[in-house]
Amino acid sequence: MHQLFISALLPIMIAGCAPSASLSTQDATQAPVKVDTQAPVKVDTQAPVKVDIQAKYHNPVDVIPQAPKNTLSAARNKLKDMTKDKGCDTSMQCQVIAVGSRACGGPSSYVTFSTRSADVQTVKKLADSITVLESQYNAKNRMVSICQHLTQPSTQCVENKCVKIQGNAQATY
After folding, report:
1. Among 98, 91, 109, which Cα is nearest to 146's?
2. Less Cβ around it within 10 Å: N or C end of the chain?
3. pLDDT for 47-92, tens place per residue?
4. Where is the signal peptide (predicted)?
5. What are the structural domain ranges in the chain?
């Protein structure tokens, strides 16, 4: 009985999957499609092409204010004069601050100074302005540098003088 039922339904299911006759007659009555056989368009590859890059693209380096090299040198000299007296009574008076900006990132150097002879806020403000000036100079002149990260050195008061302790970092990033 089960086989009889399947054999009766099988032809109906197969007939349902077949394409209908109305579609095949409709396809036959459609008009043939015309193909346009125009000659291919020729492009002159030898003709010079003018492109106005300035009008289309904006170079972000052009909007960076130029930091004159002599301004940067003057600021560095002022910082050097401000921090030249490294006299100290205790290691708590010795400070290290990051100065400058390498083109690849990070500070270009660290300056050791004594809070006994230099005001921390004044030194920090000058160091920050040097960092900004150097960053602008590097960007404007497309400078490159070594991509070596300088770690902040430690400092202590040795024989009443603030000194850097090389090879011993306060903070490693």
Report:
1. 109
2. N
3. 555 545 444 444 444 444 555 568 888 999 999 999 999 999 999 9
4. 1-23
5. 64-167
